[in-house]
Design goal:
This protein is mainly beta. It folds into two domains: 51 residues, no CATH class; 387 residues, Quinoprotein alcohol dehydrogenase-like superfamily (Methanol Dehydrogenase, Chain A). Helices cover 9% and strands 41% of the residues. It is built from two helices and 35 strands. The strands form nine sheets. It has a five-stranded mixed β-sheet, with no helix packed on it. A four-stranded antiparallel β-sheet has the order 4-35-34-33, with no helix packed on it. A four-stranded antiparallel β-sheet has the order 5-6-7-8, with no helix packed on it. A hairpin with a 3-residue loop joins strand 18 and strand 19. Helix 1 packs antiparallel against helix 2. It is globular.
Length: 444
């Protein structure tokens, strides 16, 4: 089995075919030579069919923030005890920060004593490469430390600490290029459970959500950290969702969900393109999902979910119900269905068009986070650390294997759980429980 980055895979067969063609013309002048050329081309074609997609994971929920991995040729069924564990490290520090992976390097954050650090590990071996200080420690009754996933773009990695310290660092050395604080520099206010969003990098801008009277959203220059604009028409306080970037009817826009509304914002100046009300309670966490001209949002504490057609002018509410009440852990759209954990209902498959419940499963696994690749869902329980592989199908909960994260931390706050989202990248599954990062081989 061979794994190549998508950009290499796209050009490699054509390059080799042209090379073989030239060699055949130059070196052969007989019918036998041309027959050999045809044989080589046929063999090459069959050889490339065995390649499978593999990709880096450069941001929270992937590059497009859909939570969908495009990897293929992965295990469709796990052996007893789960897939092979490749490595484990206990050097990640405390916190719930997730992973971004590029060019064989895994980036995350962790708390060590009174500091939050940006960390880089070898994604294939778990060996620590470097660590760099981001800022002071966020303390919280549900567990101290950072919550977000770093974002990688070009040769830079961007990370946001729990108290609003935002840094831009070199991916090879960890050297900090610039640092801003969402409170002291941008007038924001730390939410009750800390800043948790994973900042968005788009068109030379860092999009973040400090919240406050100067504008909920801020666009910073990705190279210098200087302010480009603030969304001064939109001044709600920060919540815990991460913004996404979409293009709808030729209009690029950023979408962000806060306590009482979901908005579409103009990337050029931060002005509001559209806005829809949302009855959020206590905390609004899941990242919006965009598909086919619609935005889907959900949150917990009994609130529910809603699908909105953006349209050309005012947004149109298609449905709003309580089928999906996703507190955290995220939801993922696969074809015409939404999958995720719904408080009180269990793991749910919901019709994306109508909002109707298709199936639910309460007994097999408790509340948790979700990931997707190769027509399968990776469901992780927050309480016991159990991970179950199921088919992504509207026909029901179809398990294809399970295992339990081991080792598990003894340092987690008693109120805390296993909240770091699973990540699938380059044929590997990455999981975390506080200081432990675990890597599993899931190639087919």
């Amino acid at each position: 089995m061979f794994y190549l980055k998508r950009e290499i895979l796209g050009c490699l067969p054509l390059f080799l075919i042209l090379k073989l063609f030239i060699l055949a013309l130059v070196q052969q002048d007989s019918l036998f030579g041309y027959m050999k050329f045809i044989f080589k081309i046929s063999a090459l074609f069959l050889f490339t069919l065995n390649f499978s997609w593999a990709e880096d994971w450069t941001s929270f929920r992937g590059e497009d923030r859909s939570g969908v991995s495009n990897e293929s040729k992965l295990l469709k069924k796990w052996p007893n005890g789960g897939p092979q564990k490749l490595w484990v490290t206990d050097k990640a520090g405390l916190g719930y920060s997730g992973f971004s992976i590029k060019d064989g390097v895994l980036f995350t954050m962790g708390a060590f004593q009174k500091k939050e650090m940006l960390l880089a590990f070898n994604a294939n071996s778990g060996e620590e490469i470097w660590q760099e200080e981001v800022g002071e420690l966020l303390t919280n009754g549900w567990g101290d430390g950072p919550r977000m996933s770093p974002t990688v773009h070009g040769n830079k990695v961007y990370a946001l600490g729990g108290k609003g310290n935002l840094v831009c660092a070199d991916i090879k050395t960890g050297t900090i290029s610039w640092k801003r604080n969402l409170v002291s520099d941008l007038g924001g206010k730390v939410p009750g459970w800390g800043y948790t969003e994973s900042v968005l990098i788009d068109d030379g801008k860092v999009i973040c959500t400090p919240g406050g009277k100067d504008g909920s959203l801020a666009a910073l220059d990705a190279i210098t950290g200087e302010i480009i604009w603030r969304s001064n028409e939109f001044t709600d306080g920060a919540q815990y969702s991460s913004p996404i970037s979409i293009s709808h009817r030729g209009q690029d826009q950023y979408i962000q969900l806060v306590m009482k509304s979901v908005v579409g914002v103009n990337p050029k100046n931060g002005s509001i393109l559209w806005q829809s009300k949302w009855p959020g309670k206590v905390a609004v966490i899941p990242t919006p999902v965009y598909s086919d001209g619609s935005v889907y949002i959900t949150s917990g504490y009994g609130v529910g979910c809603k699908r909105i057609e953006i349209g050309e002018n005012a947004p149109k509410e298609v449905f709003e119900n309580k089928v999906m009440k996703n507190h955290h852990g995220g939801v993922i759209k696969v074809k015409n269905h939404i999958y995720g954990y719904s408080d009180g209902v269990g793991w749910v498959c919901q019709d994306f068009k109508t909002g109707e419940l298709v199936w639910n499963e309460k007994k097999a696994l408790g509340k948790g986070a979700i990931a997707y690749a190769d027509n399968h869902l990776y469901c992780q329980g927050e309480g016991d650390g159990k991970v179950i592989l199921i088919e992504a199908t509207p026909t029901g909960w179809v398990p294809k294997g399970e295992f339990t994260i081991n080792p598990q931390t003894k340092k987690r706050n008693p109120k805390g759980r296993i909240w770091t989202h699973p990540v699938i990248s380059n044929g590997k599954l990455y999981l975390r429980d506080q200081e432990y990062i675990l890597c599993y081989d899931i190639k087919g």
